[in-house]
C-alpha cells in the first residue's frame, strides 16, 4: 500500500507536531506520568500477588488440617476395633467409606505387616505398601505427611491399641488439593480483574495528575513566548507552586535586566551618535565661517584651522575609544595572556604621563612594595591603568598630587590610584562606569574627555576576573583600588 505525496506530507507534519508537543524522551509530563503510574501500579500488583499466595496457602492448610482432624477421629475410633485381612467389621468398613466420601479421597488401612487390610477404592487390597511415611509411622508412632507435585496429600496416622502403647495399624489418607487450587484460581481471577480495573484507574489519575502538574509550565512558556515579541514591561506572576513562583521571579529578573540592557543599548547608540556628531558640527560651523567671508585674514584662518584640527583629534579619540571598548566586549578568547612584570608596566605609564602632570605642577609618586609578576593581557591592562592615572592627573587641582601604589599577596595583586583632585559627587559614583557618562560635562569637554575611559577600564579589569572599587568625596579627591588575580582563570 502506497501513500500519496500529499498524504505523506500531512502525516509527516502531524508526526513532527506530535513529537514537538510530546517529546517522550525529554517530556517532564511523560516522566511524571510514568513515575506516578508505576508508583501506583507496582504496590497494587505486589499486594495482589501476596494476597493470592496467602489465600492459596490458607486454603491448602485448611484442607490439610481437615484431613488431619478427620483421620485422627477415625484412627481413634479404630483403636478399640480389631481388624485383619478378610475379617473387616462392618462398622470399620462404614467408617472408612464415610471418611473417603467426606474427604473425597482414598482411604487405606494398613496392618503392622504393611499389608493393606482395606482400600476404599478396592484396588490394592492384600498388597504390601512400603511408603516411607507408613514405615516411619509404625516405627515412631507419629503421623507422617507428604505432598506431591500433582496436588495430592498423603497422610499416615498411627492406630494405637487401647492402652495407647503399641501401634496396631496405620490409617492412610490420599486426598487431592485440586478443589482448593481451583478455588485459589477463582480468587486469583477475581483479583486479576481488580488489578486491571485499579491499574486503569491509576493510569487515568496519573495522566490527569501529570497534566495538572505540568500545566503551569505550559502557562509560563506561553507567557515567555508572548513577552519574546517585545519587552512590554509586563511581569509574570504565578501564585501556585513555590518553585514556579521562584522560576517566574527569575524570569522577571532576567526580563528586567534585558530591558535595562536594551535601554542601555539605545542610550549608548544615542550617545555615540551625539558624540560623533558634535565635532563634525563644530568643524562645519568653522568651515562655513571661513567660506562666507572674503579675504579672510591669515591669523583668523590659522585659528579656525587649529580649531578644526582639535575637533578632528577629538573625533579620532572618540573613535579609538569606541574601538577599544568593542574589543573589550569580545569573548575571553581574545585575551592574550602572558607573564608580565606589573612594576615595569606602571613605570612605563608614569613615564608617559609625567610631562602632562608637570604642566600643572602635579606630583606623581609611585610606591612599589615588592616585584609583582602576573598572567595578564599587557595591552588591555596598560590601557586600564593609563585611564585611571590620566584621569587622576586631568581631574586634579594645581599643585596637587597623584599617588600610585602596587602590592600583592599569594593570590592577587593590588593597584591603588589616589589623587587630590576635584572628587566625584556621591550621587554620581554609581554611574561613573557607564559609557559616555560625565560628572561635569563642561570640564570634561575642556580636557578632552570622551566619557568612555572608565567603561574601558572596568571592562579590561573584569576580563582579568578582577574587581575595581572607588572612594571619593567631592572637593577632596578620589581613590581607585584594583584587585586582579596573579594567575589568570580561564
Q: Explain this structure to me?
A:
It is a single chain. The strands form three sheets. This protein has a five-stranded antiparallel β-sheet, with helices on both faces. Strands 7-9-10-12-11 form a five-stranded mixed β-sheet, covered by helices on one side. Strands 6-8 form a two-stranded antiparallel ribbon. The chain starts with a helix and ends in a 5-residue tail after the last strand. Strand 3 and strand 4 (152-160) form a beta hairpin. It contains eleven helices and twelve strands. 57% of the residues lie in helices and 16% in strands. The radius of gyration is 51 Å and the shape is rod-shaped. Residues 1-11 have low confidence and may be disordered. The protein has 490 residues and is of the alpha+beta class. Helix 2 packs antiparallel against helix 3 and helix 6 packs antiparallel against helix 7.
